[in-house]
Specification:
Radius of gyration: 16 Å
Mean pLDDT: 77
Low-confidence stretches: none
Distance between the termini: 16 Å
Number of strands: 0
Strand content: under 5%
Oligomer: single chain
Number of helices: 4
Amino acid sequence: MGFFTLIFWVVAISFGIARLYQFAKHSGIIRKQYLIVSITIFVVVTLQMSTSLRPLIGRAEETFLPTEKRFFLEHWATVLGN
């Protein structure tokens, strides 16, 4: 289930980024550094949220929100290592 969620996320992010760049080109925006920064922040935040949504990606615990907090790469390494 987590693999399909990740594939869906990658497709959605790719489509959204392509649409943003099309809009910027159509609007005549020359400097796109702000788009790169905002897209990077958005991608990192959505990846970090995957640790808070563990029942969808990892094993479900007794509560919806986990009690311990981990960086998303650490969480993924732990889940994939089991």
